[in-house]
Amino acid sequence: MDSLNDLEAPASAASTVAARDSVFKARSITKVYHMGEVNVHALRGVDLDLYAGEFAVMLGPSGSGKSTLLNILGGLDVPTSGTVMYRDRNITAGNEAELTSYRREHVGFVFQFYNLIPSLTARENVVLVTEISRDPMKPEESLRLVGLGERMDHFPSQLSGGEQQRVAIARAIAKRPDVLLCDEPTGALDVETGIVVLDVIDRVNRELGTTTAVITHNVSIAAMADRVISLSDGRIASVHRNEKKITAKELVW
Amino acid sequence: MTALNRKLFRDLLQMKGQVTAIMLVIACGVATFVMSLSTLESLRMTQQTYYERYRFAHAFASLKRAPNALAARIAAIPGVAQVQTRIVVDVTLDVAGMAEPAVGRLISLPERPTSGLNALHLRSGRFLEAGRGGEILASEAFALGHNLSPGDHIVAVINGKLEKLTIVGVVLSPEYVMQMGNGAAVPDDKHFGVFWIGERELEAAFDLDGAFNSVTLSLMRGASEPEVLKRLDLLIEPYGGVGSYGREDQLSNRFLSDEIRQLRGIGMVAPAIFLSVAAFLLNMVLTRVISTQREQIAALKAFGYSRFEVGMHYLLFVLVIVFCGTLVGTAVGAWLGKGMTHMYSRFYRFPVFFFRFDVATGLMALGVSVSSAVLGAFGAVQLAVRLPPAEAMRPEPPATFRKTIVETLGLAFLFSQSARMIFRQLERRPWKSILSSFGIALATAVLVLGNFGRDALDRLMDFQFSIAQRQDVSIAFVEPTTAAATYAVGHLPGVTQSETYRSTPVRIRFGHRSRRLGIMGLHQQRDLFRLLDVHEKSVVLPDEGVVLSEKLAEILHVGIGEKVIIEVMEGQRPVREVPVTGIVTEFAGTNAYMEINALRRLLREQETVSGAFLAVDSRYTQELYRQLKTTPRVASVSITAATLQGFKDTIAENQLQMQMFNVIFACIIAFGVVYNTARISLSERSRELATLRVIGFTRAEVSGILLGELAVLTLVAIPLGLVMGYGFAALTVWAFETEMYRIPLVVSHRTFAFASAVTILASLLSGLVVRRRIDQLDLVAVLKSKE
Questions:
Q1: Percentage of chain B exceeding pLDDT 90
Q2: Contacts 24+ apart (CB under 8 A), B358-365
């Protein structure tokens, strides 16, 4: 953690970030799930751009469609209609193999429940990803970045929740992804640990310039974003740009 | 090692109990496969080499008496490579140390045995020396059966005279790899022996100077055996030829071929069952592994692992188990095969009987086990491959429960809360409950199969030797005799009952199918030699018509009421069309029966008999034997007790040895299945059980819920397993059936009880292991982890 703390940067970079290129261009995205005889409309026509290097928070109550949107951006799911362009690449037109290579080359995921492989140590969980990446950092390096240099050879069961989530972040960033997508990364953590984890994500965004999208239902977290995208009932309710964003450590909830 | 492989390795290690259980089941299947195949291959190779090197003949025929000049005409038949004529006679033997008489087959050897057919292999002593009388060579089986070695003597009744013969050598012949007398159902090395004696001596003794009564010949490559046999029959017919036959009908060879066929049967049926169980277990375990690793799979896919890589990862999980199982199974199988070969070498007489393990057999075993496992795992691996990563990130939908049938019927008050939980759990996922029960049933079924062999043999021996054929002694006369013999036989010492019979070699034909056999004429009123149908009811011999053994009827494709053609192969050789009037149950050989007078009419004879079945007062047996030994008209004496002993020593011993392994394998399978079922159910329920513990249930109560479930599954499985076991037994009967033997489909209560008991024991032991696990359950950790 210390190494990241030493690299403290100015809090407001929103305007500069906004001026950069769009990384994602999502247009008229809908997603319908067929649950037995009922059709559930998770997304009802979403238009969204995410810009290079920005830190976006997607806010909304459960069932608002934010996870579905994140999964579609990350190539884990495909929309029922609409297109998503990742730079020049239409990821909604690709087949399974193309989606796989898209995820492999460009996306880092962080999940609410960490999804670590319990039979692998922290380091091995990271290696799992670096082995299949083109230009990864050293697993040790990414673990040091999240402040776990000392606990690399521990199994997930030997780590606290916050530590596990930091391993998950290390695993996500080790491939030097272009985008980091985090689904409720603090959902399973207490406040203090949550702040530590958000701080790491914030650092990654700033230090590595990784375009970052964080999903949360926790309104307080919105304060550290460049932009806050609020979702409600499958639609984007509002987009709000923070004039001044605060650091994770300043968060209270 | 890649991180993914490291995960694989640790996953396997973590599930070592279950993994070992499955591995052992695979090892069992592979072991039986390798054992039967390698033994089969060894036996086949040994047989082939022996036949080739020692020039085993291709065709055989016996006749009454033909001049040696006929040999040249036989040799002239197109396709015949080499002809060997000889004299073969069966005589009564008096062997030191044995009260009852034995049958000796004397075969003439030319003065200068050169490169003839059916060459002898000298085991000890020397070959016959020209000009020296009273010398014989003894077959190894008989010599060993009586502890005879070169220098020892035997006494034979040769043409009414007692002759003392000196054994100068112990030999083996490709004609007698399995040494059996005419009409014998089983080998009996104590009461039947083959001997080779100088040609001159035999010619003189039996008044066959310049003549022969047996011919064997080899065929040229590409010659048509049926054609040669037909021509041979025409040539020997005027000389009392009783029909030639090829290797297929040669007794010793047929015995061997049947053994090889049976081994092939075992090599197919048993591994098929074992490997299906393994496939089933792999499917069960892998499905569970994949369901617990749902989110890990999602994460792997999210990070860019392709469907193929994920599929391979889980396939590898299976392949590691299969590979280890195959390795262990192949080693055990080769070891067992070596043991089997050793056992065979005790009753198959080969100059060298070596065990051969072919690498190809090992590879084949690997191929078979891998394909069955992959087949079993395919569905589960598909689950992992198909799992959409986004869906896997969402928790599984909560289980839906409903009231059970019992509860809707308003009988809920009968059950405790725990019992209701057990039943709801079972009903909630009926398919899974059915599968688990099916798995346990499969184990029970294999246990039934394991012990079925003994039941079948017990039944066979009981049926053949005490229900159907109740005579103590059967005798055969040298030649058909007048009915006066009936009177003489009835007055032999100790004989309490006697039934004479007439038998004659025939060929029975129906359509294009035919068989050579000895048809037997029996009196209508009989008490000793009984003919029984499937229900053990006596089959009556009608005044006209023929009764066939089930197997013969099956081979000929003939049913009751249809007419078969009977060609008599001796005397005037009449040919008659005769209706089939009945079918009898028999487990050995292919036989046909007629009423004795009907057979005599067919033969255009009166009052002739070929032999008799006797019931003997045991106090007088010694005296009877003594007298029979010196009765020149009696060609052979067969003693039921000795036959039974012979059967026990050979076939039964062989089968029981096999069965012992089957039972061991079946126990392994039973434990493998039940243990895995229990462990999976624990893994699925640990969260729920921990919750119950937390809200105040005692350990005993919590264990009770899980073990109660296992108990219900086991109790449902057992009856199903017993039925399936019966089915497996039927499959085995079918696979084992040969022309010479069939095994009855009988499963005893003892076998059913044993199978049930072992299944219950397996459940109890697995229950104990699971119980210990429940006791050690880390409540907090389980509840915190996200299922």
A1: 38
A2: B358/B38, B358/B41, B361/B34, B361/B37, B361/B38, B361/B41, B362/B34, B362/B326, B362/B330, B364/B33, B364/B37, B365/B30, B365/B33, B365/B34, B365/B37, B365/B326, B365/B329, B365/B330, B365/B333
**For chain A, what percentages of helix, strand and coil (3-state, to nearest 5) are there?**
35, 25, 40
Name the residue with tokens 């039943």.
B423
Contact (CB, 8 A) for B422 and B712: yes
Task: Identify the DSSP state of B678.
Answer: H
d(CA B135, CA B143): 15
Q: Are B333 and B38 in contact (CB under 8 A)?
A: yes
End-to-end CA distance of chain A: 22
- CA–CA distance, B353 with B714 (Å, rounded to integer): 47
Chain A interface test: which of B5, B14, B393 (most A C-beta within 10 Å): B393
Q: How far apart are CA A161 and CA A194, in angstroms?
A: 9
Q: What part of B 386-405 touches A (C-beta under 8 Å)?
A: 388-390, 393
Which residues from B are below 8 Å from A96, CB to CB? 307
| List of chain B residues whose C-beta atoms are within 8 Å of the C-beta of residue A169 | none
ipTM of this complex: 0.82
Cβ-in-10-Å burial (0-12, 13-18, 19+) of B93 comes to: buried
Which structure tokens are listed for B44? Answer: 């086949």
pLDDT greater than 80 at residue B4: yes
- Could you say which of B2, B389, B786 has the minimum Cβ distance to residue A76? B389
The Cα of B326 is separated from the nearest Cα of chain A by a number of Å equal to 26
**Any idea which residue has 């085991």 for tokens?**
B123
pLDDT digits (tens, 9 = 90+) for B671-705: 888 888 888 888 887 777 888 887 778 888 888 88
Cα separation, B196 vs B88, whole angstroms? 9
CB pairs under 8 A between A and B: 90
Single-letter residue type at A245:
K
Residues B171 and B350: their CA atoms lie apart, in Å, by 10
What is the reported pLDDT for A16?
45
Q: Coil, strand, or helix at residue B197? A: strand
DSSP letters spanning B364-414: HHHHHHHHHHHHHHHHHHHHHHH--HHHHHSPPPPPP----HHHHTT-GGG
Residues B653-672: what's their mean pLDDT? 80
Q: Suggest the residue from A92, A115, A160 to mutate for an interface test with chain B (most B CBs closer than 10 A).
A: A115
- As a dihedral over the C-alpha atoms of residue B138, residue B141, residue B146, residue B148, rounded to 10 degrees, the angle is 40
Which of B3, B307, B393 faces A120 most closely, judged by CB atoms?
B3
Q: Which of residues 360-389 of B touch A (CB under 8 A)?
A: 388-389
Point out the residue among A96, A101, A113 whose CB comes nearest to the CB of B295: A113
The answer for residues whose C-beta is within 8 angstroms of residue B734's C-beta and 6 or more apart is none
| Other CB atoms within 10 Å distance of the CB of residue A54 | 24
B741 and B258 in contact (C-beta within 8 Å)? yes
Query: Are the beta carbons of A171 and A128 closer than 8 angstroms?
Result: yes
pTM exceeds 0.95, yes or no: no
The Cα A214–Cα B258 span in angstroms is 75
Q: Which of A112, A46, A132 is nearest to B298 (CA)?
A: A112
Q: Count Cβ atoms below 10 Å from residue B115 Cβ, excluding itself.
A: 7
